[in-house]
Each structure stands twice: as C-alpha cells, then as structure tokens.
C-alpha cells in the first residue's frame, strides 16, 4: 500500500511514523514545501514545545506516541507537558530520528497544488512531479505564520474534494489598540480579569496574565479571547470592540479604596507605572482611580493577523469527517490537524490535537488495511 501525506508538520509527521510502526510494508511519503519538516515546532511553547496537556482529549494518545519513539515528557503547571529537556529541538530530533528509523520518505521543497481521486487511486500533482497513492492524508496546517510552513494551501485541496471550509480567522493572537497607554505600559505584565466587549455586549471573560506592548495587548489571557475579535468586521465598521481590564480581580473596590486611603496609592498592589497612569487619568480622584483599576477600558482596533497568530480559526467542517479524520465524502482521504475546524485555548491543547489526530488517522488506515 502507498500512502501520501501532504504536510510535514506535527500532524503529518506523527501520522507517518505511526503508520510505519503499524504497517512497516506500507510506502509512506511526506510532501513538505519547506526545506525541512516540523519547522513550526521550534517556535512553540516559547522554544520549549508544549506538546500536550493532561486535560486534553488526546492526551493519552499523544503521550503514548511519544513514549513509543523515546521522548520523555515532564509536567509543568496547569497540566502542560513539555519534553524533559525543555527544548523544542529535542522533539524535532526525536521525530526526525523516528522517520529515519522506520523508513518514512520525506520530500522537501515540494509544493502540492492539485489532488484528485481516479479509479480508486489518488494523484497528487506537485512541483516535483506526480505522486500516486492508495491513501491520502491532508495535514497541511492553517494560514498562521506562513514563514514556518502554514500557507493555507490545504484548504483549497480540501475544497477540491467537495469539503466545506468554515470562515477562517487568526486565533490565539495579540490584539491591537489605539490607546496611547499601551505604548506607555510596554513590557508590563499583570494578572488580571480581561473582558472582550463587542457592540456593548460582553462576549467572554478570563483571568490570566496580560502583557502590554507598543501595539496593544498580548499574554495568554489575550490570546484565548482573541477569537471574539473580527478584523473584517472592525475594519468595515460593523463592530466596535473594547477590552475591559480588572487589574485587581481578587480585591473589591472598597478594599482598593481603603488601601489608597491608608497608604496614599495603589503602588503596593499594582505596577507603579500603571498606578501613575491611573492616577493621571483620574486626576488624583480616589474613587475614579479605584473605578479605573477595576474597569479600565481600551479600544481594540483589530488583531496582529495571521503572521503572529499561533493557530488559524475555522477550517474543514468536522461534521464532514469521521472521528478518525477520514472523509465522509471520499474513502481513504484523511484530514488532520490545524486544517480542521478545531481550535482550543493555550496550554498544549492545539498541538495535542495535531499529534493525536495524526495518530488516529494512521491507526484507522492500519485497521482498514488489516481488514482487507
């Protein structure tokens, strides 16, 4: 049996290795358009590679897969799992070694621009010729961080097989603000309660770390709520968006006011630069300082876009896929990873989906082959 996997990222490489583990006789070819596979993994988890999370749906699958190829994991806070070395390069090296050990054929700098199925066989047209296979796996990734391999080409391939692609948007991304205060607070980190208000309606809220930047706000809490911000609707004037920040979610307004009355400021509670800005904004009025500290509003004008987004929101409609990732429309076609309309919060959940969906697709292919 011949299997072609388009995309040499987390999902595609995991699928290829698992497929060769279960079917050594299968000819597995990975088509990767960059000069090396798994390039995006180097940037994940701030260079540490947050592989999975103990609360992720695919945790057991992902962990078992990595244990089978010799990668030892360790748990960090909030269930996040990293390689024991705390180096993303260790993950890439182990995956590369496994590909070599099991005999996965990787074709780099290969752009796949068309795929079709004729007479039970897939034909994949690429910049390096036509590849044929019995099984085709689309693991092309999304549109985020194009320089690391995600150029969005997989969506068109999926559409060519009559699959629906839901609206796409940058997700887990920083937010841009027109507020001059963000620039003044650049580099300040604070644990807060962040709410996203769109057209006077609170869309969602979350407590976590927020980071101010010259363009606006970042940090995990910002990333997780960015999905409620639409660049298209903001630019067209259909939406008005505001970020509402409670800098002291564990303290009441009364407690903050008593602190100011006793100590003269909130310097013992909040970063001094922030305290200075709040005080100037409130013209030194204690009640207003407290109000702003608990309900600070900054206008959001958009996101930092796909170039900075960790993942792409939207994708191939999951209703058109089986649990294994196999297409309900085309037999022996599988769609995995970020190409699917499956997005999660920060903390290893998205990378877990990439790895586990690749492994599940491989196991399904193995089971189908065994039945035949």
SSE topology:
Blueprint: E1 2-6, H1 10-22, E2 27-31, E3 52-53, H2 59-68, E4 73-75, E5 80-83, H3 88-102, E6 105-107, E7 112-118, E8 121-126, E9 129-133, E10 135-138, H4 153-160, E11 169-171, E12 175-177, H5 180-184, E13 189-198, E14 201-213, E15 216-218, H6 220-225, H7 231-236, E16 241-246, H8 253-263, H9 272-281, H10 286-294, E17 296-303, E18 311-313, E19 333-335, H11 349-371
Parallel strand pairs: 1-2, 1-10, 2-6, 10-19
Antiparallel strand pairs: 3-5, 4-5, 7-8, 8-9, 11-18, 12-15, 12-17, 13-14, 13-16, 14-15, 16-17
Structure report:
Helix 1 packs parallel to helix 3. The relative contact order is 0.18. The radius of gyration is 24 Å and the shape is elongated. The strands form five sheets. Strands 12-15-14-13-16-17 form a six-stranded antiparallel β-barrel. The protein is an alpha+beta fold. A hairpin with a 2-residue loop joins strand 8 and strand 9. Helices cover 31% and strands 26% of the residues.
């Amino acid at each position: 049996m011949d299997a072609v996997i388009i995309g040499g990222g987390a999902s595609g490489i995991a699928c290829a290795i698992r497929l060769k583990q279960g079917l050594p006789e299968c000819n597995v070819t990975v088509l990767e358009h960059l000069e090396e596979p798994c390039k995006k993994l180097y940037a994940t988890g701030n260079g540490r590679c947050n592989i999975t999370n103990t609360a992720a749906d695919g945790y057991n699958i992902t962990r078992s897969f990595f244990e089978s190829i010799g990668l030892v994991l360790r748990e960090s806070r909030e269930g996040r799992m990293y390689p024991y070395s705390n180096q993303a390069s260790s993950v890439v090296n182990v995956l590369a070694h496994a590909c070599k050990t099991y005999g996965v054929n990787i074709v780099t700098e290969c752009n796949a621009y068309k795929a079709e199925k004729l007479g039970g066989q897939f034909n994949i047209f690429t910049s390096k010729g036509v590849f044929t296979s019995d099984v085709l796996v689309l693991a092309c990734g999304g549109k985020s961080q194009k320089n690391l391999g995600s150029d969005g080409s997989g969506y068109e391939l999926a559409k060519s097989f009559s699959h629906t692609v839901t609206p796409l948007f940058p997700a887990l991304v920083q937010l841009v603000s027109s507020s001059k205060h963000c620039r003044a607070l650049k580099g300040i980190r604070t644990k807060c309660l962040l709410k996203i208000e769109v057209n006077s309606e609170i869309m969602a809220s979350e407590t976590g770390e927020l980071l101010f930047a010259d363009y606006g706000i970042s940090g995990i809490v910002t990333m997780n709520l960015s999905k409620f911000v639409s660049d298209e609707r903001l630019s067209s004037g259909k939406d008005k968006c505001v970020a509402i920040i409670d800098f002291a979610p564990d303290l009441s307004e009364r407690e903050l006011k008593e602190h100011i009355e006793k100590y003269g400021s909130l310097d013992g509670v909040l970063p001094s630069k922030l305290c200075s800005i709040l005080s100037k904004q409130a013209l030194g009025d204690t009640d207003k300082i407290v109000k702003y500290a608990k309900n600070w509003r900054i206008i959001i004008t958009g996101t930092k876009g796909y170039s900075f987004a960790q993942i792409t929101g939207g994708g191939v409609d999951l209703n058109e896929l089986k649990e294994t990732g196999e297409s309900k429309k085309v037999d022996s076609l599988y769609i995995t990873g970020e190409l699917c309309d499956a997005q999660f919060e920060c903390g290893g959940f998205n990378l877990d989906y990439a790895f586990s969906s690749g492994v599940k697709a491989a196991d399904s292919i193995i089971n189908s082959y065994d039945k035949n």
